[in-house]
Amino acid sequence: MYSRQTFTLLGILGLSCSTTANGKPTQEPPAAVAQQTSTAPAAIHTVASTQTITDLQGAFKTSIARVGPAVVTVFSSKTVAQQGFGGGAPFDFFFGDPSGPREFKQQGMGSGFVIDRAGHILTNNHVVEGADEIKIKLANDREVTATVVGTDPPTDLALLKIDDPRVEPVELGDSDSLEVGDFVLAIGNPFGLPQTVSAGIVSAVGRANMGIVDYEDFIQTDAAVNPGNSGGPLVDLAGRVVGINTAIASQGGGNNGIAFAIPVNMAKNIVAQLQASGTVTRGQIGIVISDLDDEMAKTFDYRGDKGILVQDIAPDSPAAKAGLQSGDILTTIDGAPVDQLSKFRADIARRPPGSAVKLGVWRDKKAITVNVTLGAQQGAAKPQAGHQPEIGMQLQNVTPQIAQQLGLERPEGVVVTHVQPGSPAARSGLQPGDIIEQVGKSRVKTAQEVASKLKQADLKAGVRLRIRRENAGRFILLRN
Predict the structure, then answer these.
(1) Which of 169, 159, 171 is nearest to 138 (CA)?
(2) Which domains are seen in the chain, by residue range?
(3) Which end of the chain is more exposed for a tag (fewer CB within 10 A), N or C?
């Protein structure tokens, strides 16, 4: 990558090479270049080119010096139980494992960066998810223990905290100002090599529908990002963090020049909520939506080139109360065109519950306006009344949208939307997306029923849960 970038610079600066009689390459005299290609003095061209190189190198070095001290390595470990030697092989069936379930420590590693003097560290949720213990190695090689302030799996962000008065925080930039072609740097811990810096450009912005997380608006870059870079900063040449490196497109697991970072402007809102309450509350309308192709649009006599289709409306939802209908085509939100389903969902989710949204709608061959007051996504809100926070999970009644995402036949039941790393729920093996069908011997249909049953249960002895995961039922013992 560096070689390709170097060749690009040489091309921009207009330098060329020739070969002498002895076969050794040599740069042509500036005067000869000037005579052949330009009437401008060659010396001025060479001085300007040298200054450009110096300025660019200086910007790289200044940016690295500003951000480097804040970049940390994140070490996580979690206890994993394994039954028997072969996970259900015939040997285990006949003879068993006399020791019963075995436990071992699973180690993980990623990157992160300090965002304030209080010791808050931003990283990816997948770096620390389910961890029993988290250690931070600072840029000066000090090691400290971190606690989890909160996580947000739908964006793959996690906020940690360490107690160290000597931390050096970064400056957060403005990811909305990024343009394709801007230089960026990725700093992190790829393959366990701390403080590794790679350079590239912004290849694209607004990448969505990647299937990586629920809310996607990625910055794409060709800066080298590899395993271990997750959670590290993507930095502009002013030394400001503009993104959080999260994923790569790779068949072999290594860098192929296509990496994705969460925009820092999306992260700012998440961080503020996690610092305030440890949870994230998102706005929601209560609709099932889909992209709109030309053939479907014609059936609604819609000739516009933008818009998304409302497939269904949840009962008693903000959408139902506002009068939205199945078959409506959403064309604008607060005057801005609606062109991508993922961006629309992210836009709604970023707004706090209670916000008023003005939607442009195509219905019955005419354009109308519908005003909607957003509700709250229960799965991202605080635990419901009666729920015991120390269990470490959040629940939500299954909505039509969730049923569609999980491939459920009917929009009913209780889904686990978040599991706190290191909590009893995490240690029992519960995962986001699990559907809780029974608590003890009682079938449950609402999050409130689950919370009530857990409140009455003897969690020291443990309570049996019947869950469904990937269309297969299983029992889990939840013990505090």
Answers:
(1) 169
(2) 2-68 (no CATH), 69-279 (2.40.10.120), 283-376 (2.30.42.10), 378-478 (2.30.42.10)
(3) N
